[in-house]
Every structure is written in structure tokens, then in C-alpha cells.
Design goal:
With 413 residues, this protein is mostly helical. It has 19 helices and no strands. The longest helix has 25 residues, at 79-103. The relative contact order is 0.11.
């Protein structure tokens, strides 16, 4: 029991690393030390999987290469170098740690999914409490320093148990949804499905207060998983849309109470902001956020920058700001490398999707990666802290040793 609890704490620190105002070392850095220690022991035992070594060497080479380009361009932006360093020592290392435990049969796919479910419960409950209680939000803002551009005391959006908010944190909750979806598709028991759907609804409800991106991923991931993997997809989709109808009815029923608790913030700010996600249906046009995003899609007008990038990540020299992940990729690493990288991730996800007959989790995970690739139009989710954990885990599953002989077999419908 102690070992399982310790592994869950490690997993949570890997999924949602936290920095505290009262402690000098972040939970992510502490977990990274454990992951690197494990990898060091693997090296001593000569059993380190070659793919991690390849990732580390590649990232080191790319970091040196783009640090040189950064210096050449004179923009003094070494944020991409630092991000690649974090990838190797924390996110890829953590993915290798949990993959290797699974490969050696120390944990099962179901265990990883339980970790995702419990992580989702912790994050979603903290987000809901942050939204409903300004005092709780204030308390979290005092012990969790702010990172990113989301004001921790903003009324209509929350961070919950996180140092940053917005799309990144909403995708962390969407990652946790993979565990719910796995168990939902795996069982045919109506009671279990109702419980899982209720818990998933709580996760989606909490994501409403963080960012719409994660909610969209949660909704699409569940629908695609049902379409591709559920044997009783017609009845399941009926149950799903019935549950959505009940959820909408419940929100409308308890709307006065929610408004009373939030001082009308829910009706006046959160609900209109959230409904605008579906503006193409409700209003017949894109919402303001998407219109702004389309205006942020541009390419460098310098041929050298177009091909090789600036080497940095945060700044585009004399260009305007852009939230688009693809624009950031091209400005950081150039067009050719961006195409190669995205194509490699896409092919890896496709390879994982084809291995779904050996484990349902492979299929569910591949759907999430496909969605992350598509939503790179919004943010660089393929390298951002909120999602890169699952990208690396998918790479290990896709390239190391699938199919697994000891995996739970799943027969496609």
C-alpha cells in the first residue's frame, strides 16, 4: 500500500508539478531526481532502453544547435534550450519510469489509469472549490506562486491546484480524462458506467472554469473513443447525450444557487464565455478568440528564419505575438524541422492506434495525441508542460515493445 501511494504521488507530481511559496524545491524537481536516479541505476545494470538514450542525445544536440542559432540571431532567448532540458530530466524521464515499470510488470495499464482518475479528482475538486470559494482561491494563490498569464484572483477563471492556468492546465485535466474513458469503455456494467460518467462530468464541469480547450478535448476524446472502441456505441451515445441533457437541466435548475454562491459571476461571465465556444452553431460565426487566433497565423518573411527558426521560444524578434503552436514551432525551429517533428509524432500516434488490439489504453492515448496535434493550431501542446508527459509516454509505448504479451487483450468491436 505504501509503495502504491508513493508511486501515485510521483505520478501526480509528473502530471501536475507544483512550486510552493514555502518550499524552495518544486515537486517536479524532486520527482525528476527520483526518475534520473532510476535511469542511472538502469545504466549501471545495462538495461536502459535505447529509446531514452536516443531522446536524451537528440534533445542535447537540438539544444546546442538552437542555442547557437539563438546566439547568432542575438535575441538572447534560451527558453527553448531550457524547455528541452526539462523534457529530458523530468517529462521524458518520468514517462520512461512509468513505462519501464509497466514493461517489467511492476504496474499494469489499469494502475496508470487509476492514477489518472485520482489525479483528475484532485485537480477537478480543487478547481471547483477555487471557483465557488474566493477564500479558498486566495489561500491557493498564497501557497502556489503564479506562473503564466492567468491572474490567480480572476473571478471567472481559476487555476485550482496549479501554478498556471488557461489552456495548459485544462489539458492536464483532459489527460486525466483518459483514465475515466479507459474504464468506461472497458466495462459493460451500467452502474459502473453511470458512476464513471458522473465523475467524468465533474471533470468536464471543473474544466469549464479553467479554459475551453481542455473541455473540447475531453468531449471529443470521449465521443471518438466510443465511436472507435465501444461495442455498444449506439446505446452508449444515447446514454451520453442523455447525460449531457440531464447535466444542462441540472445547471439550469441550480443556476440561482450557483449565482448566489458566485455573486452572479457564473451567469454574467463564465457561462457566456463558455457558450461562445459553440458560437459557430449558436451565432453562425466564430467567437472573438478564434477570430484573433486566425489573425495570428503568419510566417517569417525572412527566408533564413523560415527554414531554421530563431532558436528561441518566447520571442519573435520584431514580429507580433501569436498563440498558435504551429507559428511558434516555425519561428523557433524552422519550417522543415517543424514538419519533421509533427509528422513523427503523428506517425507514432498512428502506430499506437494500430496497436490498440493489444490494449484499449493505446487507442485512447492515441486519440488524445491526435487531438493535441490538431489543437497545436491554438497552443504548442506537443512540447508544452501540460501535455508533453503523454506525448513521451505514447512514444515509449509506440516504439519500444508493443504489442505486450502481458497486456489486457482487447477485441475490437
Amino acid at each position: 500500500m505504501i509503495k502504491k501511494f508513493f508511486l501515485f504521488i510521483l505520478f501526480f507530481c509528473w502530471i501536475s508539478p507544483l512550486s510552493f511559496s514555502f518550499f524552495p524545491i518544486s515537486s517536479g524537481n524532486l520527482s525528476a531526481l527520483i526518475f534520473l536516479g532510476y535511469i542511472f541505476l538502469e545504466i549501471l545494470n545495462k538495461s536502459l532502453n535505447k529509446i531514452y538514450f536516443n531522446i536524451a542525445i537528440t534533445a542535447l544536440f537540438v539544444a546546442i544547435y538552437y542555442s547557437s542559432i539563438t546566439t547568432f540571431n542575438g535575441n538572447n532567448d534560451y527558453s527553448l534550450t531550457y524547455l528541452l532540458f526539462l523534457h529530458v530530466v523530468q517529462y521524458a524521464a518520468g514517462a520512461y519510469f512509468f513505462y519501464d515499470l509497466f514493461k517489467k510488470n511492476h504496474i499494469k495499464i489499469e494502475t496508470i489509469c487509476y492514477y489518472l482518475v485520482f489525479s483528475g479528482l484532485i485537480l477537478s475538486i480543487s478547481s471547483i472549490l477555487s471557483y465557488l470559494s474566493y477564500e479558498f482561491k486566495l489561500f491557493l494563490s498564497e501557497i502556489l506562486p503564479q506562473a503564466g498569464n492567468i491572474d490567480p484572483l480572476r473571478l471567472n477563471r481559476v487555476r485550482g491546484l496549479s501554478n498556471s492556468g488557461g489552456a495548459d492546465h485544462s489539458m492536464q485535466l483532459a489527460i486525466c480524462g483518459l483514465g475515466y474513458i479507459y474504464f468506461y469503455i472497458s466495462t459493460n456494467k451500467i452502474v459502473h458506467r453511470i458512476i464513471l460518467l458522473s465523475l467524468y462530468s465533474i471533470l468536464m464541469f471543473s474544466t469549464m472554469f479553467i479554459a475551453r480547450t481542455g473541455f473540447l478535448v475531453e468531449m471529443l476524446a470521449l465521443i471518438f473513443a466510443i465511436i472507435f472502441f465501444d461495442r455498444n456505441k449506439v446505446s452508449t451515445l444515447f446514454i451520453l447525450f442523455s447525460a449531457i441533457s440531464i447535466a444542462i437541466f441540472s445547471i439550469l435548475t441550480f443556476l440561482p444557487l450557483i449565482d448566489y454562491i458566485t455573486n452572479d459571476v457564473f451567469s454574467n461571465e463564465t457561462l457566456p464565455w463558455f457558450i461562445s465556444l459553440f458560437s459557430i452553431v449558436t451565432d453562425g460565426k466564430l467567437n472573438d478568440s478564434n477570430v484573433d487566433l486566425l489573425q495570428m497565423l503568419y510566417l517569417p518573411d525572412d527566408f533564413f528564419l523560415l527554414l531554421f527558426g530563431t532558436g528561441g521560444y518566447e520571442f519573435f524578434l520584431n514580429y507580433n505575438r501569436s498563440d498558435s503552436g504551429y507559428v511558434k514551432f516555425i519561428f523557433s525551429v524552422g519550417l522543415i524541422n517543424s514538419l519533421l517533428f509533427v509528422s513523427f509524432v503523428f506517425y507514432s500516434a498512428f502506430k499506437l492506434f494500430n496497436a490498440r488490439g493489444d490494449s484499449l489504453f493505446f487507442g485512447v492515448l492515441s486519440i488524445f495525441i491526435f487531438l493535441a496535434i490538431a489543437l497545436n493550431i491554438k497552443e504548442p501542446f506537443l512540447i508544452k508542460i501540460g501535455t508533453v508527459n503523454m506525448v513521451y509516454l505514447s512514444l515509449f509505448f509506440a516504439w519500444c515493445s508493443t504489442p505486450f504479451n502481458h497486456s489486457k487483450k482487447y477485441t475490437l468491436p
